[in-house]
Amino acid sequence: MRKLIWAGLVAVCVGCGKPAPPPVDYSIERGDFVNLMDHRGVPAGAEDWSIMPFADQGAWFGFGLPVAGDERLGVGFTGPFLMTSGRWISPQLVRLDIPGARLVWSKSLPGILEASWEAGELVIGQTLWFDSSRTVLIRTELQNRGEARRSWEPSPMGEVFGNAVVVEDGPAGRLHTTPEGDRVRVMWTEPVDEVMDVEPGGSEVVVIAVCMTPAGDEEPDMATVLEGVDASLARNAGRWNAYLEPVAATGAPVNPVRKVAVKAVQTLIANWRGPAGRFANGGLFPSSNVQSFNGFRAWDSWKHAAALAHFAPEVAADQLRLMAAWQNESGMVADLVYLDPEEDNWRNTNPPLLGWALHQVFQATGDLELVRELYPRLVRYHEFWYSDRDHDGDGLCEYGSTDGALEAARRESGMDNAVRFDTTSMLHNGDAAWSMDQESVDLNSYLYREKTALAGLAEALGRGGDVERWIAEAERLGELVRETFFDEATGWFYDTDIDTGEIIPVQGPEGWIPLWAGVASSEQAARVRETMLDPAIFRTHVPFPTVAVNHPEFSDGDWRGPVWLDQAYFAIAGLRAYGYADDADTLTVQVLANLEGTLVPGAPFLASYDPLTGEGRNVRHFSWTAGHLLLLALEG
């Protein structure tokens, strides 16, 4: 089997007639991956979005790393930040005031934060990790390296911002509430009114637990949590070893590609939110670093799940359950859902990738119960496109909306301001059903891929009749896609006008989606490849912009030029699917090498990148960027 060994971003083929390299130790050590994510910062106010909070276990709250020299700080981590409201409740809620203490270092590792202070001969080490989605444990060890006894009084509480108030206070802890009804409780193992002594050459340990409970949810038993600190830390190490084990396939122990993969895993887990409020299942935010993204989005979720399937399949399954549950009577899945239902968006859905994602998770886990649970919802969602988004009933669907708004229909495509929609109008199909007046090649290619996924899932369920249905439908749709959208003159797939059938002459990512979906003929794929590899069109410094660079409307607008990693991944995976593995390998290296900050510890993954310079833009710590970079690393 062909395998790539990544060494300094140079791909060496093993099994291609060349001598095999010596065996490589692929074991994972968390200490090899220090500060791949930057969680440093002290919030200046409740709505300070400059800091990416550290979170794990699907928690709806997170903490930051302290910064050396900041006089506002005592000993402790910064925060917490509440994902429910998108606000910090304190610059440093858990604060130990030790006279003369100065921060020596602070760092993040996969699944854990660490920091060290010195106060004369006293050395203070702290470790923070998540025991569950509701609780954080902070272990503080004080070592006395001097010759005299040191005494101190813990008093582990800092000030809160105006968005939280103290409602309970006592010798074993304190409870805060927010206007939204969220509760933050702090408990510690030593009464705050007792003085602690650290003997010369000795040490003392204090453990503090912080519990954040979203409004309406049940608070865990924190006393029990505090009794199992060592076991909790061991579970944390075991869980993160399991997350990182699949990443070992990406090459030598600490090479650049492996660091990209580990940072991708960390980013995805930091954006994971567990069950809360009206959500019976957990999922991933597009990013925890932007207030408008503190909800769950459909096609983001499908992409997240495909990446999570490789290292956290239970989280992937939950992600699918969460979004698939938000389905209306017509079978449509909501675009966005939030804890507050008034913020949901039902004006449109997103491109249909649920079947692909479910099939990816099933292949990774063999979880037939998940397939049995979601298959009926997937079928209803698939049929929705033909009932509500096929204006002329010809078997080719269009993007649309529930209210007739073109803005919502563009949003439904996932490529909101794409050049191909500049002359688009809307057509009325029926109650709460509207379509664009153009048939989109990417949408129908996605639907083809969904039919093949449905056939595979139906076979796993033993539904022979369904298998025949989906295979027959895929064959018919495949013929339509190949005949309708491919232009022989230019060798590219285009959207077409619904009335005239004429192509809409814009070359964008929609043109390579038929390769990713497996619907293009081999001859068509060869023609598309030529354009994809042309430096004057799509093979830019960072390959695969969202419109050809030689198009007059190419710009820095969100979907009018920048590279989005989902589309770059589809391009590379499409080439690989048609046998162009060498191209796919080379382009993967080019993408990873030229994205700004991708190989730099602490630099965030961004939502999109300038194809000419590699400069990142828009949202930081973006989940689907992390997910697709992980897929590129694992599949290369």
Number of beta strands: 29
- In terms of DSSP E residues, the strand content is 15-25%
Enumerate the strands of the largest sheet in spatial order, edge to edge or round the barrel: 6-7-8-9-15-13-12-11
Mean pLDDT: 91
First-to-last CA distance: 12 Å
Reported for the largest beta sheet, the result is: 8 strands, antiparallel
The outline comes out as elongated
Unreliable runs: 1-26
Radius of gyration: 26 Å
Number of helices: 15
The residue fraction in helices comes out at 25-40%
Structure overview:
- The protein is α+β, with helices and mostly antiparallel strands.
- The protein is elongated and about 90 Å long.
- It is built from 15 helices and 29 strands.
- The strands form 10 sheets. The chain has an 8-stranded antiparallel β-sheet with strand order 6-7-8-9-15-13-12-11. It has a 3-stranded antiparallel β-sheet with strand order 3-4-5, with no helix packed on it.
Key terms:
3-stranded antiparallel beta sheet, disordered N terminus, alpha+beta, 8-stranded antiparallel beta sheet, 31% helix, 636 residues
Task: Describe the structure concisely.
It is built from 15 helices and 29 strands. The chain has 636 residues and is an alpha+beta fold.
